[in-house]
């Protein structure tokens, strides 16, 4: 019996070592990319100096609350938790595919006691036999083994696909973390911008109210026309209408932030209740340009690994053209007397060499191969599209950042002029040169510019966040777990 198993083992081992895997070997697609982003020159000019570490880019905003919220989101976000759970699933699938290459064994045993009826035809016949015993015992203990020999590499291609999908799930977690960090920062910046604009709107309301009261006094004195009164009332209503809009937007933004943090909506209201300015964006570089983008963007790693998996599945489908060989064996003992279970006479053994070949099913095999090739073509197109969209993300974020910063700088200059105009008009009013209406109108123009500047600052900070996200946020394929 030992010689039988030994012979089967040698045959299987030699066959496995000499076999080749059918199907195409994976080659990463060659992609051409420009040497630099279109917005690189302007970004370098406007963001000269040392840039912050990409792995913790949110710290560069120098806002402790933002840093705290991002850290909390990375620890508690449920999208990340789902992505991490998918790693467990894909790792299990990879281990299962690896185990399929190895022999499987099992141990079985049973002990039976039976009592036969003598009212059945068989029982009546046996009951007529001298010394017939209606009671029976049986005992059996076996050790079995089974091995499908991967002559043509179908199982190895399955393992290759499972490994690629496992790697994709790992990169997917990094993509989820990058997305959550960027989403948290974006919501936080938006919230601070809304707080700033709400405060400005409240100031505008007070100025418009004072303006309306002044015009009403003039109307009562016969100095102002009713048209001026109605126009001032309409302007006040317009400013007042903006306040609940900002308040509703603040509530929605806060609730969205709480969900990203994995908490009940409203949990962080106290933390964010005190208004704070919009955090200034740190310096940004192109982090190596388009050539490095493929190594930093985790979503591109996911797309590339899925492409590798689809390539491996072509070989798995092609292997169905060929016969499948398997070896099975069983060794054990069987007896009707428990004391003789390990007696030499109770030994039993079985060795089986199996063959399975879809010889008359090649039409279905061809269809499966065609389907696998189609999935690879789809995955390749998806990967190429992901690369193009990654470059688009960077270019769009850079362009938005530059334009919003330029807008904010222009509005900052306008703010200086309008503050000077407001001061001058107040002095002139005290000197009796201009009316209070002109003073209030100057203040209104200043507040409108402050609102526009706050919006530009918010958009610039959000564009900076989008830039860090588009650049990959510190992900590097060299740190990727290839095991």
Structure notes:
This protein has twelve helices and four strands; from the N terminus they run H-H-H-H-E-H-E-H-H-H-H-H-E-E-H-H. It is of the alpha+beta class and 483 residues long. It has two domains: 1-19 and 325-356, no CATH class; 31-102 and 152-322 and 363-479, Outer membrane efflux proteins (OEP), CATH 1.20.1600. Strands 1-2-3-4 form a four-stranded antiparallel beta sheet, covered by helices on one side. Helix 11 (362-430) runs antiparallel to helix 12. The chain is elongated. Mean pLDDT is 84; it is low at 1-18.
Q: In the CATH hierarchy, what is the superfamily of the largest domain?
A: Outer membrane efflux proteins (OEP)
SSE ordering: HHHHEHEHHHHHEEHH
Give the terminus-to-terminus CA distance: 39 Å
Strand percentage:
5-15%
The shape, in one word, is elongated
CATH secondary-structure class of the largest domain: Mainly Alpha
CATH topology of the largest domain: Outer membrane efflux proteins (OEP)
How many separate structural domains? 2
